[in-house]
Design brief:
The chain is of the alpha/beta class. It has a domain of 147 residues: SPOUT methyltransferase, trefoil knot domain (Alpha/beta knot). It has a six-stranded parallel β-sheet, sandwiched between helices. It is globular, with a radius of gyration of 19 Å.
Length: 237
């Protein structure tokens, strides 16, 4: 199997053109419309979410509002997507899991920082930014913790900033899927109305389009393998 980002850009474009014939024109047009609103400028990280319906609801929200990359930290709990809640959202997203070390939170944070992300911890317990005031000029990763305990102490300490939803009731926090929806809707709306370059590059769009086509076509890997073999034989002759 060839990952989209393992292929030369010209081959990716050729594969997209080839695979188009296996989906309806309307479906491919839908892909092209949706990809315009996808972003990696804002990303979401979930640390040890143990209730699958909550994590699945966050994935669904990310798809609805155009966030392409979701980072899953699995220190104790592993992501189990609930299909009745996610409604297929996970197959349109890039889900990156961190579960190979003793402290996967550190591994995730280091990876995000190396990619230029500012780490913003979501918590009602610290004064920080709100969805209306958080600066968005730098690539931003919103970090969400477990349903009861919130983010781990290490995750809080390593964060660059904090963000909260102002509330005026007796209850001090919202369900994680609800709070994620509020943050994501507000911040993506602000991004799209700003002058910030939040859009995907042309190369990123092609890589994602190719993966979406793969997800949509029965036996797509066999079709791709046959196309690549035919193309390679053509270039050799």
């Amino acid at each position: 199997m060839h990952a989209a980002n393992d292929l030369p850009p010209t081959t990716t474009k050729e594969l997209i053109a080839h695979l188009q014939q296996f989906v309806t024109a309307g479906r491919f047009q839908k892909f092209q419309e949706i990809i315009r609103f996808r972003t990696r400028h804002l990303t979401i990280t979930l640390e040890d979410i143990f209730q699958s319906h909550n994590a699945s609801a966050v994935l669904r929200t990310c798809d609805c509002f155009g966030i392409q990359n979701i980072h899953i930290i699995e220190n104790r709990n592993k992501l189990e997507v609930n299909p009745d809640v996610a409604l297929g959202a996970s197959k349109w997203l890039d889900i990156i899991k961190y579960n190979g070390t003793d402290d996967n939170t550190i591994a995730c944070y280091k990876s995000l920082k190396n990619q230029g992300y500012r780490l913003v911890a979501t918590t009602p317990h610290k004064d920080g930014f709100t969805p209306e005031t958080l600066p968005l000029g730098q690539k931003t990763a919103l970090i969400f913790g477990t349903e009861l305990a919130g983010l781990s102490p290490g995750a809080m300490e390593m964060a660059d900033d904090y963000i909260r939803i102002p509330m005026v009731g007796f209850t001090e926090s919202l369900n994680i899927s609800v709070s994620a929806a509020i943050f994501i809707q507000s911040l993506t709306n602000r991004l799209r109305s700003s002058g910030i370059t939040w859009q995907l590059s042309d190369l990123e769009k092609d890589e994602i389009l190719l993966n979406w086509l793969r997800q949509s076509i029965n036996k797509s890997e066999l079709i791709i393998q046959g196309f690549l073999e035919k193309t390679n034989n053509y270039h050799k002759s």
